[in-house]
Amino acid sequence: MGYSKFSMYNFFFLIMVFSMVLGQKNDHQIMLNDRDSLLSFMSGIVSDPHHVLESWNSSNIHLCNWTGIRCDNKIKRVIELDLSHHSLRGTISPSLSGLSFLQILDLSGNFFEGKIPAELGYLLKLNQLSLSSNLLEGKIPNELGFLHELKYLDLGSNTLSGEIPQPLFCNCSTSLQYMDLSNNSLSGEIAIDNQCEIKELRFLLLWSNNLVGEVPKALSNSSKLEWLDLESNSLSGELPFDIVNKMPKLQFLYLSYNNFVSQSDNTDLTPFFASLVNSSNLQELELAGNNLGGELPPIVGNISKNLAQIHLDDNLIYGPIPTQISNLGNITLLNLSSNHLNGTIPLELCQMGKLERLYLSDNSISGVIPSDFGNVSHLGLLDLSKNMLSGLIPDTFANLPQLRRLLLHDNQLSGMIPPNLGECVNLEILDISNNRISGTIPSEVAGLSSLKLYLNLSSNHLHGPIPLELSKMDMVLAIDLSSNNLSANVPSQLGSCIALEYLNLSRNALEGPIPSSIGRLPYLKEIDVSFNVLSGEIPETFQASSTLQKVNFSYNHFSGNVTNTGAFTSLTISSFLGNFQLCGSVQGMKSCHKKRGRGHFIITILLSLLITPIFCVVGYSLVLRSKFRAGFNSKVIEDTEQGGGRKEQKYPRISHMQLIEATRGFSSSNVIGEGRYGRVYKGVLKNNMSIAVKVIDTTGGGEISGSFKRECQILKRTRHRNLIRIITTCSKPDFKALVFPLMPNGSLENHLYPSHGLGHQLDLAQLVSICSDVAEGVAYLHHYSPVKVVHCDLKPSNILLDFNMTALVTDFGISRLVKAVEQNTNPVDESVSYNSTDGLLCGSIGYIAPEYGMGRMASTKGDVFSFGVLLLEIVTGKRPTDILFQQGSSLHEWVKSQYPHKLEPMIEETLRRCATCTTVPSDHSNIWHDIVLELTELGLMCTQYNPSTRPTMLDVALEFGRLKQFLSSPSNIVAEDVTTKC
Asked: Is 528 an annotated catalytic residue?
């Protein structure tokens, strides 16, 4: 017995020794296996623009020191592979399954194509898997359900299709905390079996897919869920009250844009709102765009006191607004628009002290507008339009310091416009059209210089003259005074509304001539003065306009000759009907038959004989003078270059007189741009250098002076290939100007909206390149320049294009200089600023971040929002103000309402628009389609309402770097012999 025991111990000892020896050999072999797996994965990568895998090619570097690799020093195995956001392109190799100890795999934000390898399901120790923001397609492998230790799964923003594998929920149920499958093309039902216990799940994001069916009952097991986003699918059934009831930690619930109904045959919302009472941390609730019926129950006032936003718009909710809703004291946004609500506006709504935006439009609400709204001090937007409201417009609106948008149109309001509305010094939109308002237009309201979007007083009973004070609205984009009883002359002072794009004075009793100053408005696109009693000739300034697109002079008493030239080239008689004394060459208009006598011919000959010698003598002296000055300037420039000892170009000092000569006396024909701070003129110096001269309007006082100093300071201290370079400045007490090189290809706006021979349509590759340039330039301003800069006014007209179509950001007149921060901290401190332009609007209408409308300080996130609007503008081909006037919503809101299932017509229109510039083979059209879709998605990300959820410009620049790199290889998209037409 003892012998056998001794023998057994010896046997086990030998086994242990043998195992240790074998283990040492295996450790080395295993490391070789990890290396082989990684090299096999690298072989599937066809593009590495940033050379991040350069270390992988070196035999002298241990694989644990390769870029993106982290090893466990104890077990000598690879446990992390992170190559996110490196613009890699290729396929994901199944060989990654050989990394058997891998815990983290992050390949997000690249250009990986093909399918997700099923072999990834063999990485049994994996707890984080992120493949989001790639070009992956096909189905999600069932094998991913083998990953029992998986905590974090992100496959969002690809083109994955098919159903969600049930094992993904059930087999991973004991560990899974975060799942994001959003923004794909997944279909079928959300397959969670009742036996699945996903108790650790905290985040479930499935928005923007094609999912159908009801919300699975098994989700009620997820009592730790904090974020549930099922928005923009085709889910149906009753609102999941019995599921939500078991989610006490819920903070964000998004169920908008599905096909949900309420309980009891879509008549009872009480069970659902009662189920939310337990969710005491709820912050945002979105149920918009469903088919929800029933009355809004009083119990809505008992849900979370932390609730900040409620979106119930675009449903079938009826009945009165419950007074109990005022118990939600932290609400900043309440949207009940586009329902069937009736009754009156509860006075209790005026007790919600933190309310910033209130939407009650498009309902059947009656009664008067409570004057107590004047006590809601944070109110910035009030939309009561398209209801049955009556009575007077409360004069207490003048008490709202933050009020920016007041929309009362399409009601039955009466009485006069309160003059003290003119005290709303931040008001940007005032729309009281389609009511029964009478009296005259108060001069105080007409003088609202803060109006920056539009003034609409149309379809009322207003009378009297158009107030001269209207000329103070020098930043308003649209004025509509149509369908009233206004009389007297059209004031020439309207020509001072220099930002005006739309003017409608039709269907009034206006008389006299139409002022020529209106035709000189630099941005005027549409004018309608039809159905008045205007007379005289139509001023030539309208034909000379470079921006005018639509006119209507019909049914007046105009006379004279009208030619089909300039802005009138494409017009027909339909724009001039009912003016029987008009004649000319416009299509459908009677010809002018005017004979010239022999005497006129003789006078013409005599004048030519007299004037020609005079021009010869004067012209000769001017030529001699010009040659002398040119020679003198050349000598000065030559001396400067030789004395400086630098090889770079030396710009000359340019005097005030030289600028006058270069711009032909600052002639209006040389104007190439105009804004709130002055005009920009093109000019040519005597040495043939083409320049752009930005002349500052010095009549604006300290604000304008500050703009000049600020722009000088920024241009002096920033250097980047995508920022405009200054040549020199010219500053006198009564004259201030900035001189830049003239960009031969004009601004991006010229190319997005070409007219009258200016600019041409750009192809997608050019647009991506331009957007990449802009993102790089702004990222430099935010993160790397010596002074951190918030631009505050990104828009197409402030993006110039040089001779090779490189984009340069310009116009820093209202920029903010943000204090620099120490290294290794956040790049920009967004909480402090100096030399700010306090009191000025941070940007141009349509591009302004919503938080600026609430009085918040300028920040880099505001520039990100403006850039996002720019992207959406490029994709849709619509100015943000066009959407505002036509649809009544922002460009972001309009695109989001189409996303994702209604985007196809918009994408096809974008591709058609660029088809004139790019020849794309049919078998590659899907790639262009995906590029437009990615631009749209990036635009929506940048224009999110919450600034903290927007990406940084560094992130944006990186994304465009990926796209630009992808497009730089002709084999990616089209054959090398394909050329562009433009």
From this structure: no
